[in-house]
Design goal:
seven-stranded antiparallel β-sheet, mainly beta, 8% helix, Jelly Rolls, homodimer, 148 residues
Chain lengths: 148, 148
């Protein structure tokens, strides 16, 4: 038996074949937040923020996308608002969130609802902060939501 | 100055007044998963599961609801399927999830996407398991999703 006849196998190959056959929206996903590569967030006003898409439109998620953010100590997301909401869970660390014009302390285990059109910003404290931030995959008028 | 003239004040009262004035969907929420009372899940097939609604339709969330589940050691959610998806994050502990007919090990930091109409069940291991489980607030045909 030569290399030509050795079929790829093992979990990664099985995952690849399963994904190739599955229909969008029908793919099971199990991914750990420590093992999905993160990319720098390059929006104006962001500093020291990295993001990993955990489940989103590319997986066929029909309604909402789950993203993992890692903010370095002293880093922050942009101060902005938009026409869709966030639901956020603080995985680790602590910091502040701007809501209704005031910065409020937040930390591990907090769930935060940021309504659509509310100005907001997440700032990490001295130990940094990790959080999940969920968005709808479409905005109110049906366009794709950025980062979903 | 007598008690009659003492107005309720402090953070709880301010929160109450803010909520009373706010419009549905416009309420900022910050809640910790350790401080929201949990209720037993009394569905057929569930054992040792408690749930707390963290953000849902009652808060005006327009698209998806975030719930916190605590499963005692050896406990499990119902083995079932339904016409809407789950996005899940394992907060602590470990266990197994039934997906595509097989039980797979899951633990802290795992994100799981359960597509609509996929049979699934969450089982806690010896240390129990805590997870966030998100659902859309309406099903595909526009009805309210149970537990949103």
């Amino acid at each position: 038996m030569t290399g030509l006849f050795v079929r790829a196998s093992g979990p990664a190959e099985r995952d690849r074949r399963r994904q190739a056959k599955a229909k969008p929206g029908c793919n099971v996903v199990i991914r750990n937040i420590d093992r999905v590569p993160e990319k720098p967030v390059e929006m104006d006003g962001a500093r020291g923020v990295r993001m990993a898409m955990m489940v989103g439109r590319a997986d066929g998620a029909p309604n909402f996308a789950l993203r993992h953010f890692r903010v370095e100590p002293g880093g922050h997301s942009p101060r902005h608002s938009h026409d869709y909401e966030h639901e956020v869970y603080i995985v680790a660390g602590s910091g502040e969130v701007l809501l209704e014009g005031a910065y409020r302390r937040i930390g591990q285990g907090d769930v935060i609802y940021v309504p659509a059109n509310s100005e907001h910003q997440f700032r990490a404290g001295d130990e940094g902060m990790r959080f999940l931030c969920l968005v709808p995959v479409t905005r109110n008028c049906g366009e794709p939501t950025p980062g979903s």
